[in-house]
Write a structure and sequence with these properties.
Blueprint: H1 13-25, H2 34-46, E1 50-53, E2 59-64, E3 70-76, E4 87-89, E5 92-94, H3 102-114, E6 121-127, H4 136-144, E7 150-154, E8 161-166, E9 168-177, H5 190-205, E10 218-226, E11 230-239, H6 245-255, E12 260-267, E13 270-271, H7 277-288, E14 294-298, H8 303-308, E15 315-318, E16 332-334, H9 335-352, E17 370-373
Helix pairs in contact: 1-3, 3-9, 5-6, 7-9
Length: 374
């Protein structure tokens, strides 16, 4: 028997921990994911996947186990820059990407390999460039892959939580040039106009705008550079479901006396309900480990936003790891939580093998509260 598997076909805890550690040992900041993709292609092949690396650098592994539904598990390989020395200490595994999001991706690989009871097709994808504005990896997947029957996106939710949705994102750039003049001249200067653009945006969004509230937009002045003659302001707005992007951009342009306002990137918010089959499958896995599941919505964005724009299918986001440690100098994952995440995903895959039934097996249970997190 392959030493990576137990007698009942599950991936061993030793193998799972070793896989994640190896992933952490390979630096893979955005645009430099190829070494990790090569490693994962080999590792997944050894676990029984049919693997390849696509044209943009995504690694794709497929396991065929029957004529049932196709479930895609998608996480990202890239990390933000910065080094966190890889080490194990006190039941924790440290390293850049341990939480965001190599831990969730490794858990998906192990769960898919060990989901011997799933009689369908499992596609595991490690995408590139999630940490960049364009999300090129997920964009390529939605353009080139057939729509699966269900999707789980790998991001740190905490092993006992399921993410139902994310705010969207609108990135704007305002640039302006003015004739050279003395500082005491009362005409508007470029730097003043850039500050005025930010003030106009805040006014348009209104007093209730907040990053802390899922159903309200929230703005950030990402960067401001300027002098009397030239200035540039980069603005980012997190937007709730149903937000009218065109109305905001048009209204802001009307308030600018000079300069140009460009839309750099726009992705819509996404949200599914408690009864979504993927949510229910993940909740079942959490309950099987005797925990009370939490359902949350987040004010950031993920590849779930990108895929939900064109795939109207059951989906949710899940992964072990504490999202408050995203990009942190002490980024780490609790190994016992990582193992629980694998078990939850394995159970969820088993549940999703019955997608065509569409039964509400949870009728009569008290509804779970939805929490709003960053």
């Amino acid at each position: 028997m392959n030493w990576a598997f137990t007698a009942v076909g599950k991936v061993t805890e030793t193998y799972a921990a070793g896989l994640l550690r190896e992933m952490l040992e390979i630096p893979s900041c955005s645009y430099r994911e190829r070494r990790l993709a090569d490693y994962l292609a080999e590792a997944m092949t050894n676990l029984g996947f049919q693997t390849h690396i696509d044209g943009v650098g995504n690694v794709v592994g497929v396991i065929e186990r029957g004529a049932g539904p196709t479930v895609m598990l998608l996480g990202h390989m890239d990390t933000v820059s910065g080094q966190v020395p890889v080490r194990s200490e006190g039941g924790r595994l440290y390293g850049r990407g341990a939480v965001d999001a190599k831990g969730p991706l490794a858990a998906m690989i192990c769960a898919a390999a060990g989901a011997v009871g799933f009689a369908g097709r499992i596609v595991v994808v490690g995408v590139v460039e999630e940490e960049t504005p364009r999300s090129r990896g997920a964009m390529a997947i939605r353009a080139t892959h057939s729509r699966p029957d269900a999707l789980i996106v790998g991001e740190p939710s905490g092993w006992s939580s399921v993410v139902l949705g994310y705010k969207g994102k609108l990135d704007l750039r305002y640039t302006v040039k003015c004739p050279a003049t003395h500082a005491s001249n009362p005409v508007p200067k470029a730097s003043e106009l850039a500050v005025g653009c930010w003030s106009a945006l805040v006014d348009l969004l209104g007093p209730d705008a907040s990053h802390a509230v899922f159903d309200q937009p929230g703005a950030t002045l990402v960067q401001l550079n300027g002098d009397l003659t030239t200035a540039r302001a980069d603005l980012s707005i997190r937007i709730p479901p149903g937000f009218d992007v065109d109305e905001l951009v048009g209204g802001l342009r009307e308030r600018l006396p000079a300069g140009h306002l460009d839309v750099l990137n726009s992705v819509a918010a996404c949200r599914v309900g408690r009864a979504d089959p993927v949510v229910r499958a993940l909740v079942s896995g959490i309950r099987r480990l005797h925990a009370r599941p939490r359902l949350v919505v987040k004010t950031a964005t993920s590849d779930m936003n990108t895929l939900a724009e064109v795939w109207d299918i059951p989906m949710a986001t899940y992964g072990p790891g504490d999202s408050s440690l995203d990009h942190a100098d002490d980024e780490h994952i609790v190994l016992s939580d990582y193992q629980r995440g694998i078990d939850v995903l394995t159970t969820a895959l088993s549940e999703l093998g019955h997608l065509s039934v569409r039964r509400d097996d949870r009728a009569g249970e008290a509804p779970l509260p939805i929490r709003r997190l960053r």
